[in-house]
Write a structure and sequence with these properties.
eleven-stranded parallel sheet; alpha/beta; 47 strands
Length: 553
């Protein structure tokens, strides 16, 4: 039936503000509809109705069933402050413009399955005492906010299985008393700032960004994510919470749900951005990229659980311009946290050009006033190292130990003698973690020792014993003395020969490994061998320690 404005005005005037059973199936409202404050005492049927213009149900009350299945709204649909005492059914409804359900109250089940919201969808401060279903609902507004559920209260299960948001989806300060079912796909940002989850939760989310700042989880929760850059600042975690990368695309039956997701970067990896103010003892991260994560300010970071293939930042690759002492330098590959990158990107009295060149690629430049100090970065590395050591991931913890020692070495607050020791430890073996550096230092020391022995340590000829004494009639005495003249290095032209090189090499190897050469040496050679016995075994031990640090279990 076609309801003109005059006909609808006459009808509402005839029945006042109260309807009994109302049947408007497939009705056509060419001028919209005004039902503000109307009470439907019995069932209300608007299945297949067509509303042109604005449909105003603000403040209306549905005491029984309210059915709008397959209805169409070309103008704004206003259901603000509406009270649904029975089931509210909006299955397959198409909202051509804005759909406003601010402050709506649903005492029973509310169904919005397969609904299409082409304009803004507002459910702010809505109260759902029964279960609510947005199964495969489409929120198609591409810019700004597609759907706003701020301060909404879900007393029972909230089903968003297969729901897709073209723009931002806002669940700020929303309260979920029971489970929140997904997966949910959002091509922009999923904003859950301040949301409260009181029941165990397991949901899949595909979104470009997920704002979980100040989220409160009173029970266990598992978020399986794709694409997302997640912020967890000041989140309150009362029970273990898992953030993990979901390798398989989300599906609705046999249909994929991610057609609208941007593919520019070609990556579905999950990035964690902020952890300040979070009790990390209740946080489990699995296959999450931490290369941009700010760990500073997190509590109990040494108890965080890191599993799977968690990614970290890396130093600049290739040759770099160095300092006066090292004009050309390169960084050995290792895991670094973003706090160190911020620290190194800012020039200062304790950093050379080599320290600042090439850091923070693609991360933006930090604010000098908010950049961490070397002490702050060392604390982050120390806590992360302990977290990996507790899980028996010794090779992974080694990189964090390296980063901690780097911060101690560059920190001006570190005593000067300790800094000198750390510089030597870094130069000779990379803090006991770079076997190649320790082996190179050992080979250089052995080469220098060999050269010194060739020049000064080996005598010019083997000592020649001579016999002196007297033989009296009743007995005799024989005295053997070495030829002291032979224990001098030969002339410079005769110091380099194959035989002398072989002897010098044997002395050095025995000094490093077997501790005793058994060779006759000059006085200078004795001191050279003593120095070799002191220094080179230390370098050999550092090489063994570095190799063990990479293979130990």
């Amino acid at each position: 039936m076609r309801f003109t404005a005059e006909l609808w005005q006459a009808l509402t005037a005839a029945v006042g503000t109260r309807f009994g059973q109302a049947r408007f199936d497939t009705a056509h409202f060419p001028n919209g509809m005004r039902c503000s404050g109307v009470r439907f005492a019995g069932p209300a049927y608007f299945e297949g109705a067509f509303f042109e213009g604005e449909a105003l149900f603000t403040g209306a009350e549905f005491a029984d069933y309210a059915g709008f299945e397959a209805a169409r709204f070309t103008g704004g649909a206003y259901f603000r402050e509406v009270r649904f005492h029975g089931e509210a059914r909006f299955v397959a409804v198409r909202f051509g413009s804005g759909a406003f359900f601010d402050g709506v109250s649903c005492a029973s089940t509310a169904r919005f399955a397969h609904a299409w919201f082409e304009g803004a969808a507002a459910f702010t401060s809505a109260g759902f005492q029964g279960s609510v279903h947005f199964t495969e609902a489409r929120f198609l507004r591409p810019s700004d906010t597609s759907a706003d559920f701020s301060d909404a209260h879900f007393a029972k299960s909230a089903g968003f299985y297969g729901a897709r948001f073209q723009g931002r989806a806002v669940f700020a300060q929303a309260i979920f008393e029971h489970e929140w079912r997904g997966p949910v796909v959002c091509t922009d940002e999923l904003w859950m700032r301040g949301a409260v989850f009181k029941a165990p939760l397991r949901i899949g989310i595909a979104a470009q960004r997920v704002d979980m700042n100040r989220v409160r989880c009173d029970s266990t929760a598992a978020f399986h994510l794709r694409y997302a850059a997640v912020s967890l600042r000041d989140a309150v975690l009362a029970e273990p919470i898992t953030l993990s990368y979901e390798p398989m695309p989300f599906m609705a039956g046999t249909r994929p749900l991610e057609q609208e997701m941007p593919r520019d970067e070609g990556s579905v990896a999950v990035h964690l951005l902020r952890l300040s103010g979070v009790n990390a003892a209740h946080l489990v991260l699995t296959d999450v990229d931490l290369s941009r994560c700010e760990f500073s300010g997190a509590y109990h970071l040494d108890q965080i659980s890191l599993s799977g293939r968690c990614g970290y930042g890396t130093p600049p690759l290739g040759l770099r311009h160095g300092s006066t002492w090292f004009p050309i330098c390169w960084w050995s590959p290792r895991r670094v946290v973003v706090e160190e990158q911020y620290w190194r990107a800012l020039p200062g009295e304790n950093r050379t050009d080599a320290d600042t060149d090439g850091w923070l690629t693609g991360l933006g430049h930090p604010d000098p006033a908010q950049s961490p100090t070397a002490d702050d970065v060392a604390i982050v590395y120390r806590q992360l190292r302990k977290a990996l050591e507790d899980t028996k991931n010794e090779p992974g913890a080694a990189d964090f130990y390296y980063g901690e020692m780097e911060m101690r070495r560059h920190n001006k607050a570190t005593p000067r003698g300790e800094r000198a020791l750390l510089h030597a430890y870094w130069l000779l073996s990379g803090y006991g973690l770079r076997a190649s550096r320790a082996v190179a230092a050992l080979l250089c020391a052995m080469a220098v020792t060999v050269l010194l022995l060739l020049l000064y340590g080996l005598p010019g000829a083997p000592p020649t014993p001579r016999m002196t004494g007297r033989i009296p009639a009743g007995g005799g005495e024989v005295v053997l003395t070495p030829d002291t003249a032979a224990k001098k290095p030969p002339k410079s032209l005769h110091r380099f020969s194959t035989a002398r090189l072989e002897r010098a090499g044997r002395v050095v190897v025995n000094s490093v490994v077997f501790r005793s050469s058994g060779q006759d040496l000059t006085q200078q050679g004795v001191w050279i061998e003593m120095g070799s016995r002191l220094c080179e075994p230390v370098l050999f031990g550092l090489a063994v320690l570095a190799a063990r640090g990479r293979v130990q279990r």
